[in-house]
Design a protein that fits this description.
Radius of gyration: 15 Å
Number of helices: 0
Number of strands: 4
Number of domains: 1
Largest sheet: 4 strands, antiparallel
Distance between the termini: 33 Å
Helix content: under 10%
Strand order of the largest sheet: 1-2-3-4
């Protein structure tokens, strides 16, 4: 049996899998930028224990990637051009128990 996909115009209040839109970052964490200082694109967010069952159930994994609206590919990997290859993507873990998480 196939499930039904519902698209609603509201922010999900659950800490489930999400793509694009707002990230769940703690208030003191700045939005990540690439090596050019451009804001990165929030790509995927998911509970960290989906990646590894040993991780705390309250950790939420936010994955960011580089983005260039002027490039035909839009989402791209700067690792070939980047003097700091580790800045072509970014992973930030947030503790969702914290009242400091921006929702």
């Amino acid at each position: 049996m196939l499930g039904e996909l519902k698209i609603i115009d509201e922010f999900a209040d659950k800490f489930d899998f999400r793509m694009f839109g707002p990230a769940l970052l703690e208030k003191e964490v700045n939005w990540p930028v690439d090596y050019n200082g451009n804001p990165m694109l929030f790509f995927i967010g998911l509970p960290a224990n989906l990646l590894n069952k040993e991780l705390d159930i309250n950790l939420y994994c936010n994955i960011f990637i580089t983005y260039d609206h002027e490039d035909d590919q839009h989402i791209y990997d700067l690792s070939d051009k980047n003097p700091e290859p580790n800045k072509s993507s970014c992973v930030i873990l947030s503790d969702i128990r914290s009242s400091k998480v921006k929702k």
